Amino acid sequence: MTTVGEDVKYVTVPGLQADAAWHWVAEAGNLVFTSGAVPHDESGDIGEDLSAGAQADRAFANLERALQAAGSSMDRIVKITGYLTDPDSLPEIRTVRDKWIPKRPPSTFVYVAGLVDPRMLIEFEAIAVKS
């Protein structure tokens, strides 16, 4: 964990890509802000030919790890944003989202031309309250 001033802390997340050039989570008071959770495994690999739903499931698992490292959880999310590269995948991704986040907090989906890795179809970032 890195402290930035009195109220902001950056959290290291076990099991997520350790060599990332950024922090996965920032804590500010009672709030938790995540970096974009993407569908990579612990080695940083995305794999080939994963469906949008499978990628969303993996990204939500990474998001859950990030929130837990900061003392929060998926059911404490107060805002979720999803970035999608394929508008046709929205129904499949919503189904996965509703499995991981059944309380349905405010949610925004944004269609983008691409993400940092062309194999990525989805990325999520969240704001949550600490438990």
Fold and architecture overview:
By secondary structure, this protein is α+β, with helices and mostly antiparallel strands. The protein contains 2 helices and 7 strands. It is globular, with a radius of gyration of 14 Å. The model has no long low-confidence stretch (mean pLDDT 90). This is Endoribonuclease L-PSP. Belongs to the RutC family.
Number of helices: 2
Shape: globular
Radius of gyration: 14 Å
Total strands: the figure is 7
CATH topology: 60s Ribosomal Protein L30, Chain: A
Query: What is the CATH superfamily classification?
Result: RutC-like
The CATH architecture comes to 2-Layer Sandwich
Rounded mean pLDDT score: 90
Strand content: 25-35%
The CATH class is: Alpha Beta
Number of domain units: 1
**What is the helix fraction of residues, given as a range?**
10-25%
Structural class designation = alpha+beta
End-to-end distance: 18 Å
Major sheet, described briefly? 7 strands, mixed
